[in-house]
């Protein structure tokens, strides 16, 4: 789809004057009633074409900035692509030449972090003066990770979150994140973090993010089912935080045609216009109120004004790691150090300290 011609707009409030939106908000005075304009992007990757996907991301980011958005969240695996329907021709104890080549092409579409694509995304955030949360497929050597990258309006790369638990066949394609990439960033518009798709169902992960004070909880996903909305509403209520869920809207024609790319088990029933991911992106308040979405109609920018005062209002009722916790009964230990398969201890002279390198 052409994002310029066919992109629809869904907002909870009328468009605002961009000149009246501050790129940064000073919250040091304790004013919890600040309003932040946020947008979740519902759009499809240009599959197997990362440069074209980056171009599309910039067009969408420009449109969101024109709405006065200060925070823009993209879907899971937007850069690099979500390999929906693909089996990579895997079976227990067997692989095929085509399946291996499918992985080769998918690996080529992924990005290095850091790398030139990360630099371009940082420049986009700087150019449009937004906080940017972007779903990517990260390449580290020959292992891929489903990752979220964070950028500030000055064009600084803040860090990343790697998906801890890929779902089902994703585990054969993506590596597993560890506790070293579960960040919550304290920014002038609130404390921002992310969990990806079904790892949002992991109570321990959510609790770790609540304990870090998350206020704007980003949930890039590939789940377009209506039941997903129940999870998003529950997280907003449980965490007393805003939840911004971004999913792709894809038709069969957004993926390469057969036989290059096959939707396993359903290819014969699909037409080019068949919807293979219906979106459902939404924004939900800490009080469980749906501020925008869910949208199942097509590619869209889904925007809302977040009244940060709602966080305190919600926490008055329920503070999951505060006055509603029972630390004398329940406790949770988070191991945040990187888990590496191989460590090297450098050879040293008697006057030099031991140097450890992890890869």
TrEMBL record:
It catalyses: L-asparagine = 3-cyano-L-alanine + H2O; 3-cyano-L-alanine + 2 H2O = L-aspartate + NH4(+). Keywords: Hydrolase. GO terms for biological process: detoxification of nitrogen compound. The active site is at residue 76. One of its GO terms (molecular function) is cyanoalanine nitrilase activity. It comes from the Eukaryota. Residues 36-308 form the CN hydrolase domain. This is CN hydrolase domain-containing protein. It comes from Arabis nemorensis.
């Amino acid at each position: 789809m052409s994002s310029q011609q066919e992109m629809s707009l869904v907002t909870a409030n009328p468009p605002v004057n961009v000149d009246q939106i501050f790129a940064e908000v000073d919250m040091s005075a304790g004013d919890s009633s600040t309003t932040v304009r946020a947008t979740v992007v519902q759009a499809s990757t240009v599959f197997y074409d990362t440069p074209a996907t980056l171009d599309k991301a910039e067009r969408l980011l420009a449109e969101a900035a024109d709405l006065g958005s200060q925070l823009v969240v993209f879907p899971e695996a937007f850069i690099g692509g979500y390999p929906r329907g693909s089996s990579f021709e895997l079976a227990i104890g067997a692989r095929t030449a085509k399946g291996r080549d499918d992985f080769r092409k998918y690996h080529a579409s992924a990005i290095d972090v850091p790398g030139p694509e990360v630099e371009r995304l940082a420049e986009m955030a700087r150019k449009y003066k937004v906080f940017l949360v972007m779903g990517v497929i990260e390449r580290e050597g020959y292992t891929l990770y489903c990752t979220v990258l964070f950028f500030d309006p000055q064009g600084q790369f803040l860090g990343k979150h790697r998906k801890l638990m890929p779902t089902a066949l994703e585990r054969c394609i993506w590596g597993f994140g560890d506790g070293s990439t579960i960040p919550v960033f304290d920014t002038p518009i609130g404390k921002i973090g992310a969990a990806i798709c079904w790892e949002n169902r992991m109570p321990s992960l959510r609790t770790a993010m609540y304990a870090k004070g998350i206020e704007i909880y980003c949930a890039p996903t590939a789940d377009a089912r209506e039941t997903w909305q129940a999870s998003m509403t529950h997280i907003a209520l449980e965490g007393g935080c805003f939840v911004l869920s971004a999913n792709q809207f894809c038709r069969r024609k957004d993926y390469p045609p057969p036989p290059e790319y096959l939707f396993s088990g359903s290819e014969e029933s699909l037409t080019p216009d068949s919807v293979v991911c219906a979106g459902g992106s939404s924004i939900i308040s800490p009080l469980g109120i749906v501020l925008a979405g869910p949208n199942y109609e097509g590619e869209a920018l889904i925007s809302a004004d977040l009244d940060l005062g709602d966080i305190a209002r919600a926490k008055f009722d329920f503070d999951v790691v505060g006055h509603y916790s029972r630390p004398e009964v329940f406790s949770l230990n988070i191991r945040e150090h990187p888990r590496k398969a191989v460590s090297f201890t450098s050879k040293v002279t008697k006057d030099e300290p031991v140097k450890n390198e992890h890869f």
